[in-house]
Amino acid sequence: MGVTISQDNNISRALINGDVDHHTAYELRETIDNYIKLYTPEVLKLDFSEVQFMDSSGIGLIMGRFKLIKSLGGDLKVINVPKNLDRMIRLSGLSQLGIFESEDKASCKN
Amino acid sequence: MQELINEMNLNFLSKSSNESFARSAISAFVLQLDPTIDELADIKTAVSEAVTNCIVHGYKTNLGKIYISSKIYSNGKITIQIKDKGCGIENIEQAMEPLFTTGGSERSGLGFAVMQSFMDNIKVTSKINKGTTVTLQKFIIRRNLKNDKK
Questions:
Q1: C-alpha distances in angstroms, B42 versus B39, B98, B137?
Q2: Which chain B residues are within 8 Å of A96, Cβ to Cβ?
Q3: Which helix or strand (DSSP H or E) is residue A38 part of?
Q4: A56-71 vs B111-118: helix axis angle to the nearest 10?
C-alpha cells in the first residue's frame, strides 16, 4: 500500500499501490504533493496499474494533483487505469481534461 | 415473492481506517449470493462512499458510531442500510447533486452520484443533529440457488 515515485529525465511516475479510498488518499496526497513541491516535475504520471479498488476519493485525488501541478506550470497524466475503474472515471467527467493515457505495462516497471 | 434469507448488523467507530473494514465485511456477507466480480465491486464502492460520507460529513468534528445493516432476500435482492447519528444533511436534494460538496477541494462531490449509478435504488433520510440513513438496494442475478440451504 502506498506510492512509489520514480523519475526518468523530466518525467516523474507515481506508482500507486492498493486501495484508494478517503483513508489512503490522505497519505497518498501528502507524499505526492511533497514530491511535486520539492521537484516541480514537468510531467507527473499517476500510474494506476496496481490499484485494485478506488472510490470517488480517487477522483478527488486526481483533481487535486492536477490543480497543484498546473499551478506550478507542470502537466499531469493518469496512466494504466484498470478496466474496472472505467465507470467511476466516466461518471466523474475527468476524461474531458485529456489527462488519461494508456501505456504498455512493460515500460511502467523500472 | 421475497423471503428474507439472511441478515447482518454491524457497528464501528467513524475512523477512516474502518472504510476498508466496512467494504470487506459487506463483501464477505454478499458473497453468499454468488455475485459477479462487477456486482461485488459496485456494492463495495457504494458502501465505501456511504461510510466515507458518515466520517467526513456526519461526524465531521467528532467520532461516532456507524451502523450497517444488510438483508438478503430470496429473489436476489440485497438491501444495505448505512446509518450515522451525526449532524444530518440540511438539504438532501442539494447534497445529492453531482459535484456538490461541502468537503473542500479534495472531495469530488460524487459520492451520491456513485451510489445512484452503482446500485439499483437509493433512499436518503436525514434529520439535523439526529443523523442520516442511506438505504441502498441491488438485485443480484441468482446463478447458484444451491447456496440457499438454511
A1: 5, 18, 11
A2: none
A3: helix A22-39
A4: 140
Rounded to whole angstroms, how far apart are CA atoms B105 and B99? 11
* pLDDT of res. A106: 46
The model's pLDDT over B103-128, given as tens digits with 9 standing for 90+, comes to 888 888 999 999 999 999 999 999 99
Minimum Cα–Cα distance from B47: chain A residue:
A55
CATH number, domain at A61? 3.30.750.24
CATH of domain B4-141: 3.30.565.10
CA–CA min distance B28, chain A (Å) = 16
H/E element, A19:
none
Residue A82 and residue B46: Cα distance in Å, rounded?
Answer: 18
Domain count, chain A: 1
Average pLDDT over residues B22-36: 96
- Taking CA atoms, B38 is separated from A15, A36, A53, B114, in Å, by 24, 35, 12, 14
Residue B48: name the closest of B70, B17, B85 by CA.
Answer: B17
Instruction: Tell me if chain B has a CB within 8 Å of the CB of A70.
Output: no
